[in-house]
Amino acid sequence: MYYDRKAKKSKLQIGDQVLILLPTNNNKLLLQWKGPFPVVERKGNCDYRIDVNGELKLFHSNMLKRYYSRPAVSCADVTAAVVEEQEEEPEQLPLPSLYRKETWKQVKIGETLTGLTAKPSKCQLGVRTVEYLGHIVGGGELWPMQDKVKKITDAPRPLTKKALRSFLGLSGYYRKFIPHYATIASPLTDMVKKNKPNQLQWEEPQQRAFHTLKHSLSSSPVLRLPTMDEDFILRTDASNVGLGAVLLQEVDGVKYPLAYASKKLLLREQRYSVIEKECLAIVWGIQKFSQYLYGNPFILETDHKPLNYLNTAKQLNARVMRWSLLLQQYVMNIKVIKGSENVGADFLSRSNVD
After folding, report:
1. 135-218 belongs to which CATH class?
2. For the chain, where do the domains classified as CATH 3.30.420.10 start and end?
3. Is the pLDDT confidence value at 142 over 60?
4. Which three-class secondary structure string do you get for the chain?
5. φ, ψ at 103 (rounded to 5°)
6. What is the Cα–Cα distance from 3 to 96, expressed in whole angstroms?
7. Reverse transcriptase RNase H-like domain location, by residue (predicted)?
């Protein structure tokens, strides 16, 4: 338990309901507030004996905070309270809280659209698909525009670093559609480094990577658009050359990919131990898709047990400790799966080019 010698004297009384900062079931380094539990006895100025599911345990005041119950309020009660307050004191109206499916962004958009007009020639109404920023969106799915794909598949072999950067920039824009993009493009990205000549020297690995990128994009799978009503599933894996992650959602018993991500390991990262590479894959994958995972409980699927290593290791270096602290921001349910089931992330992390 965390102890602070500068902790102030607490004012909890016997019978008060408190929340306790306890480790999660999956990871002892991930803490969350659990409760409420009643205070049974006070021991000194900063220690309290708490009834935790019928078992008396002693906790320091740093691990406790007072629990305030919040009575459930129905929509009718909120409306009635607003109307009644408006009749008595119009200047001090209570602000009703937004419900689960409402957001401040939606409310703001509703206010902004009031009184706006639209030009018919620039509107598309009643269509099944729309083109947006190089993508086609429709029916809850997302795929690249065919004319953009054709530019990539018909592109000639670049002869200079500038031409190669242009090709990598366009193909990289659609990297979320291409599994193991980073490892496939590794021979090409190595040729645009500062210490490489401006006139490219093509060999078999570079030529294979060039054609593989074209083929992968021309036959890329269609991605589904995320929905906030379903839980997110993150699969991660690591190899000696790269990291891989797949973001999925399960709809009607079928898991659909939302996006692919991959990263080439740096030289110093390639020297990490296997378990540290697996930890790095989890941390990197969560940060990559943090806009979907932060604040939402999600399922983490991996074919290793790197977080068990964080729990049982007697000594953790500073790097792994930083990863542990970062993971405390997220609420995840860890599910260990077989390596044969983790095909997507495993394939993303491994290079099929020399």
Report:
1. alpha beta
2. 226-349
3. yes
4. CCCCCCCCCCCCCCCCEEEEEEECCCCCCCEEEEEEEEEEEEECCCEEEEEECCEEEEEEHHHEEECCCCCCCCHHHHHHHHHHHHHHCCCCCCCCCCCCCCCHHHHHHHHHCCCCCCCHHHCCCCCCCEEECCEEEECCEEEECHHHHHHHHCCCCCCEHHHHHHHHHHHHHCHHHCCCHHHHCHHHHHCCCCCCCCECCCCHHHHHHHHHHHHHHHCCCCEECCCCCCCEEEEEEECCCEEEEEEEEEECCEEEEEEEEEEECCHHHHCCCHHHHHHHHHHHHHHHCHHHHCCCCEEEEECCCHHHHHHHCCCCCHHHHHHHHHHCCCCEEEEECCCCCCHHHHHHHCCCCC
5. -135, 160
6. 39
7. 228-330
Q: Tell me the pLDDT of the chain averaged across its residues.
A: 77
Q: What pLDDT does 75 receive?
A: 57
Q: What is the mean pLDDT of residues 312-326?
A: 79
Q: Cβ of 350: how many Cβ atoms within 10 Å?
A: 17
Find out whether the peptide bond into 221 is cis, omega within 30 degrees of 0: no
What tens digit of pLDDT does each residue of 89-141 get?
444 445 444 444 455 455 455 556 666 777 888 877 778 888 878 778 887 77
* Range with top average pLDDT, 169-178, 292-301, 334-343: 292-301
> In the block, which residue shows the tokens 């409760």?
35
Q: Burial of 214 by CB count in 10 Å (0-12 exposed, 13-18 middle, 19+ buried)? A: middle
Over residues 69-85, mean pLDDT: 56
Q: In the chain, which residues fall in CATH 2.30.30?
A: 1-90
What b/e sequence results for 295-331 when a residue is b if at least 16 CB atoms lie within 10 Å of its CB, and e otherwise?
A: eeebebbbbbebbebbeeeeeeeeebeebbeebeebe
Architecture (CATH level 2) of domain 1-90? Roll (2.30)
Residue percentage of the chain with pLDDT more than 70: 75
Q: Does domain 226-349 have CATH number 3.30.710.10?
A: no
Rounded distance between C-alpha atoms, residue 238 and residue 335, angstroms: 16
Query: What pLDDT score does 354 carry?
Result: 32
